[in-house]
Amino acid sequence: MAKVTLATNGALRLRMLKYVFFALVMVLWHMIVRVLEVSPLIFPGPIQVTQSLYKGLITGEFLPHLGITLYEILAGFVIGAILGFLLGAAIGQIQLVEALLYPYVVAFQTMPKVAIAPLFVVWFGFGATSKVVITATIVFFPVLANTVVGLRSAPRDQVDLMHAFTASKWQVFRMVRLPQSLPYIFAGLDIGIVLAVIGAIVGEFVGAQSGLGYLILQRNFSLDTAGVFAILVVLSSIGIGLHALVRTVAKKIIFWVDSFADISGA
């Protein structure tokens, strides 16, 4: 009981420290802007950003664009994660697949997504589809690479024991390799969900008629720097929320892994 109380108090102190640190950063930001007399057109203070954020939320200006961007993020993440896991599982299990496909996967990954994003817009149009595809391509590789590493991290003695009991490849995969790879897979998902936000915004920068990235470009053209910062705050909040969601799911599924055990500390 005493250990539980100490752990709870420690978590509470850590959370309070985070809030205090955040407040100090805001105060420091405000003081720097005020003392140096920086123009809001160049670098707005936290008050101007908060006012712009409040206005965008209260008037409902952000909501339609937020819904579109969130759809692109989630759809691209799901598609990229599924494809990354499936191909990663095939590469991790079958050497022929690795020899034939993995070099092309790596070559595609080395291509800057900003450079090839205009091609996706040409192929899939200015709607949400092209943004979903761009997001999926960015999420794809971290999940694939972590899946391959995870499947190959299974202890050799456990695999040999399964083979000794005449287990099939599917049984070895389901009972040994997949459980051992779950921490790696969730690590890839954790990276992918954050990159998904970047992918959706990159797609909207290249060509879009709606979305938070489109709204950032509009506010840049009108020199509304505080409005740009406000949208960046929204995007950061989305990223933090999705990151916490992935870690919460990981905590429930792979509860034996320490790195995912304390979500409050993320």
Please name the defining characteristics of this protein.
MetI-like fold, globular, about 270 residues, 2 domains, about 80% helix, disordered C terminus
Could you explain the architecture of this structure?
This protein has 266 residues and is mostly helical. It folds into two domains: 1-37; 42-265, Orthogonal Bundle (MetI-like fold), CATH 1.10.3720.10. It contains ten helices and no strands. Helix 3 runs parallel beside helix 6, helix 5 packs across helix 8 (169-206) and helix 7 packs across helix 8 (169-206). The protein is globular and about 75 Å long. The two termini are 24 Å apart. The model is unreliable at 261-266 (pLDDT under 50).
Question: Roughly what is the average pLDDT, rounded to an integer?
Answer: 85
Sheet with most strands = none
At CATH's second level, what is the architecture of the largest domain? Answer: Orthogonal Bundle
Number of domains: 2
Structural class: mainly alpha
Overall 3D form = globular
Helix content: over 70%
Ends apart, CA distance between termini: 24 Å
CATH superfamily of the largest domain: MetI-like
Name of the CATH first level of the largest domain: Mainly Alpha
Looking at the chains present, what oligomeric state does this protein adopt? Answer: single chain
Output the CATH topology of the largest domain. MetI-like fold
